[in-house]
Amino acid sequence: MQKNINLRGHEVFTFQWSKRGEALVILHGGLSHSEKVKKYLLPAVKRDFKVFAY
Predict the structure, then answer these.
(1) How far apart are CA 22 and CA 50, in angstroms?
(2) For position 27, what pLDDT does the model report?
(3) Residue 22: is its pLDDT beyond 80?
(4) pLDDT for 23-51, tens place per residue?
(5) Per-residue pLDDT at 7
(6) Contacts of 17 (CB under 8 A, 6+ apart)
(7) Within the chain, where are the H helices?
(8) Counted domains in the chain
(9) CA of 43: how far to CAs of 10, 11, 17, 36, 37, in Å?
(10) Helix (H, G, I), strand (E, B), or coil: what is residue 48?
(11) Which domain holds residue 49?
(12) Measured between alpha carbons, how far is 43 from 54 in angstroms, rounded to an integer?
């Protein structure tokens, strides 16, 4: 699921994958973006965690 949230007056684009398991919040670095999470990290963790990326 993709959506924008308002965080103290700033629009932040978010992703949520999977709806089971404990929450795992992933914050990317300054020059990166959440597409890198989707491509490289998500396959390793989405089976066991409810993943949120910002």
Answers:
(1) 6
(2) 79
(3) yes
(4) 988 877 777 776 777 788 888 888 888 88
(5) 86
(6) 1, 38, 42, 46, 50, 51, 53
(7) 34-36, 42-45
(8) 1
(9) 29, 27, 10, 11, 9
(10) coil
(11) 2-53
(12) 17
